Amino acid sequence: MKLVTAIIKPFKLDDVREALSDIGVQGITVTEVKGFGRQKGHTELYRGAEYVVDFLPKVKVEVAIGDNLLEQVIESITKAANTGKIGDGKIFVTELQQTIRIRTGETGEEAI
C-alpha cells in the first residue's frame, strides 16, 4: 500500500479529484496549506505599500491506494494538475505499513 501526497495549485483541485475518481480512487483527503519551493514567493502591492508574500496558497491532496494503482494515480494527478508554469507542485509517494478501518476493523487494502 502507498500514500500519495500531492501539493498542487488550489484551482486545480477539481480537475485532480475528477481524474482520480475516473480511475476508481474512492477517497481523498484535502488540506489547504501554504508553502514555497523554487517560486520563493512574490511581491504584491496593497494600498500603495509593497510587501512580500513568502508562503503561497496550495492544496495538499492525500490518497491511500493499493500498489497496483500507483502508476495510474501518479499519471492522473500529473496530467490534471499540470499548467506548464512554475509552482505546479510536487507528488510524494510513501509506503503505508498498515491501514485500519475504525468502523469495521478491516485491515490492509480492504480498509482503503
Automatic annotation (TrEMBL):
Positions bearing O-UMP-tyrosine: 51
Keyword annotations from UniProtKB, A to Z: Nucleotide-binding, Phosphoprotein
The UniProt record lists the keyword Phosphoprotein: yes
A GO molecular-function descriptor: enzyme regulator activity
Cytoplasm keyword on record: no
Protein family membership: Belongs to the P(II) protein family.
Biological processes per GO annotation: regulation of nitrogen utilization
Protein name per the record: P-II family nitrogen regulator
Cellular component annotations (GO), alphabetically ordered: cytosol
